[in-house]
Amino acid sequence: MEKYSCSYGNTMSNFVFQNIEKLKDVKYDPEYDSFFGVYCVIQNIIQRGTPSQPSQILIKKLGNLIIDKNSIIPLIKNNNPEWINTIKGDGISLDNPAEIFYDTIYPKYMKDYAFTKQLILPEAKFSDIIEDSKVEFAEQQVDFYLPQANLVIEVDGESHGNYNQINKDKIRDKTLLKSNIKVIRINTYDIKNKTTNLQSIMKNIYSIVAKCEKINEYKEALEHNERYDLNLKYDIIIRFQILLLSLLKLGKLKITDIKWKFNIIKTDYKNISRLIELAYEDIKKWINVITKLLKVNYVVPNLEVFFGEDESGINIDFSIYKRWTDENILNEKCIYIRNDYYDNKNYFKLSTTNILEYKIKLGEQGSDIEEFGYILKNLFGFDQFRDGQLPIIINILEKNDTIGILPTGTGKSLCYQFVSMLQPGVSIVVAPIISLMMDQKENMDAVGMTRTAYIASNLNSSEKDIVLNQFKEG
Fold first, then answer.
1. How confident is the model at residue 94 (pLDDT cuts 50, 70, 90)?
2. If you count DSSP H runs as helices and E runs as strands, how many of each does the chain have, helices first?
3. What pLDDT was estimated at residue 81?
4. What is the pLDDT of residue 135?
5. Which of 185, 158, 180, 149 is CA-nearest to residue 170?
6. Which residues contact residue 412 at a Cβ distance below 8 angstroms, ignoring those fewer than 6 apart?
7. Euclidean distance between the first and final Cα of the chain, in Å?
8. pLDDT digits (tens, 9 = 90+) for 273-316
9. What is the pLDDT of residue 334?
10. Which end of the chain has less Cβ packing within 10 Å, N or C?
């Protein structure tokens, strides 16, 4: 399963691709693919912000989005999650009180919050919940976890009644509580016999969930999700774009193919084929721009979109509302596109490979001025370069050591920011003034390039460590 964090529409931006790793071309070696660096650059451009600014092509076709960055849009509809093997039962008696709790009891007692069943992750890893791989129970799991409410629900069988297990449970619960995670335990006896104790526990769970601000944001979105149609369109597009680039990087799709065929087996959004075609058109433009600057010749394959499963092409089950389950085991030849359970995790990883060899051409015939203008407009919002910027940018892209001397306030920062976006790797800028660093960070955030950070003497050691770890982890 591949996990991503990116969005154009400012929705809950974490999503996954299931089964995609099974489609990897084992004979494909990215080191010998002259286009691999192009895919990396484009993927980094698309994921440059949270949210990223869509291209002018997409804005022209769909319209501009007014984004409230303080209010992220939850993705939710009334769906019933399908879990096949994950929710564990008693292998001896073939009894499964955990499944009974999840399928029957939880929806019954949660009433108007029954939709939160979709937000519950069964068998969540302990280390994912508290993000500490060194914790004693890192590889263990909890029965159910509702991340938005910081709530763990454990269904305890007979084995939890012995002295040693009781002590282990207490230690686990205390460890979770230190990370502000509440733990509620339900005895299987209460589930089987529908006791008054069960009713009391469920009232407590309802109270916790109903008071949770994030959960109520989901409730509001569930009741009024038609308001966010344009946001959904943009995020369907970005998810397909990341899928397309991932398949290219895996060698399942190749730029030398005659056509790229996608079969939509299932979807929960009407007219999705038009959005997929827009996503393709946008990626095609970016490939054209970058390869023109690299002087690499090719023809991007045509895209075909069909509905229904087919042995030829890539089969996808595309949901903008559903969260992932283990239903993907029912069809391993299909890629499942689903939301993740953790809203606040950051799965972004920079796509990296060897430095690209740009060969820039100026003049009347075959000039690259138009391509530079496209990048400038789409990444920075400017219609033209200032005097002196373009020669500096071209010189650096052609791998020449460069000293660029420009007056204060005439755009030196843009020169290295521009170049950084066109190389598949981390760029490190050494600046002499803290206020300058802060100003550049603020300006880049304003144009949707938020995957940046700085280290300066105004940060304490733990804050610096966070930034260094973020860079180390990509």
1. low
2. 16, 10
3. 94
4. 72
5. 185
6. 392, 404, 406
7. 18
8. 999 999 999 999 999 999 999 999 888 999 999 999 888 899 99
9. 96
10. C
3-state secondary structure 122-159: EEEEHHHHHCCCCCCCCCCEEEEEEHHHCEEEEEECHH
String of DSSP letters for 52-86:
PPPPHHHHHHH------TTSPBP---S-----SS-
Angle among Cα 217, 446, 457 to the nearest 5 degrees reads: 100
Q: Please tell me the distance from the alpha carbon of residue 117 to that of residue 106, in angstroms, as a whole number.
A: 7
* Tokens describing residue 256: 């030398």
- The dihedrals phi and psi of 307, each to the nearest 5 degrees, come to -115, 130
pLDDT, tens digit, 9 for 90 and up, residues 420-472: 999 999 999 998 899 999 999 999 998 889 999 999 999 999 999 999 998 88
Q: How far apart are CA 197 and CA 333, in angstroms?
A: 46
- Average pLDDT for residues 411-424, to the nearest whole number? 94
Rounded Cα–Cα distance for residues 107 and 276 (Å): 35
Integer Cα distance of 27 and 270 in angstroms: 37
How far apart are alpha carbons 273 and 210 in whole angstroms?
A: 38
Phi, psi of 108 (to 5 degrees): -65, -45
Q: How far apart are CA 90 and CA 98, in angstroms?
A: 9
- Residue 3, classed as helix, strand or coil, is strand
State how far the Cα of 193 lies from the Cα of 224, in Å rounded to an integer.
38
